[in-house]
Design a protein that fits this description.
Blueprint (H helix, E strand, L loop, with lengths): L2 H24 L1 H7 L7 E2 L2 E2 L1 H16 L10 H13 L1 H22 L12 H10 L5 H19 L7 H21 L2
Antiparallel strand pairs: 1-2
C-alpha cells in the first residue's frame, strides 16, 4: 500500500467519528441542557431511566401518602434495607419489594378477603383485587404498580442500574406505602 492509498483509507475510516466528535463539541452546551430531560439513555452500563423513575415515584409517594411515623416499627426494617443498599443497591430494592409483598398479603388477610391460593403469589393481581374491593386507594394502587415496575427494572436489567441513593429512595417510598396499609386497617 502506497502513502496516497494509506491516506485515502485513513480519511475514509475517520470521516464519521470525526464528524460526530465535531458535532458533539459544537453543540455541547445544548446537549448538556437536554441531558436531564432524557427518560432513557443507554451506553454500555449507563442507565438513566431508573433514577428518573425513582424520583417520580418518590414525589408521588410524598404527595399522596402521609409520612411514616417517627416511632414506627418500620424503622428497623428501613435501617436493615439501607445497610443492604450500601452493599448491593439492587438487593435492597428486591428485598424492599419482598417486604411490600408480605405486607400486601397481610393486608388481604386482615381484611378477610377470600383469595385463591395462586393469587397469594401474584402481587399485581392481589393489588388489583384489593383496589377493586376498596381496600387500596387509587394512589396506593398506582404507587404499588410503579414500585413493581422499578423492582422489575432493578432485577432484570443487566449491569448496575441502581445506585445507593436511588435504592434508599425506593426503600423509603416502599415503607411509606406499607405504613399507609397499616393506617388503613388499624
Amino acid at each position: 500500500m502506497d502513502t496516497r492509498t494509506f491516506i485515502v483509507e485513513l480519511t475514509k475510516a475517520l470521516a464519521w467519528p470525526t464528524t460526530v466528535l465535531v458535532a458533539v463539541l459544537a453543540f455541547r452546551k445544548s446537549l448538556l441542557r437536554l441531558l436531564p430531560q432524557l427518560k432513557n439513555l443507554k451506553y454500555d452500563k449507563l442507565e438513566f431511566q431508573f433514577a428518573k423513575e425513582v424520583a417520580a415515584v418518590e414525589m408521588q409517594a410524598q404527595a399522596s401518602l402521609p409520612p411514616v411515623p417517627e416511632k414506627s416499627n418500620l424503622e428497623p426494617i428501613r435501617e436493615k434495607l439501607t445497610k443492604l443498599a450500601m452493599i448491593s443497591p439492587e438487593a435492597a430494592v428486591i428485598d424492599a419489594w419482598r417486604y411490600l409483598e408480605t405486607e400486601l398479603l397481610e393486608l388481604a388477610t386482615t381484611r378477610k378477603l377470600e383469595i385463591a391460593p395462586a393469587v397469594r403469589t401474584m402481587p399485581r393481581v392481589l393489588g388489583a383485587l384489593l383496589y377493586k374491593e376498596g381496600v387500596l386507594s387509587e394512589a396506593q394502587h398506582d404507587l404499588l404498580v410503579r414500585l413493581r415496575e422499578l423492582r422489575n427494572d432493578a432485577s432484570h436489567t443487566q449491569g448496575q442500574v441502581v445506585d445507593i441513593e436511588r435504592a434508599v429512595s425506593y426503600v423509603d417510598s416502599t415503607l411509606r406505602l406499607v405504613a399507609s396499609f397499616r393506617d388503613s386497617h388499624s
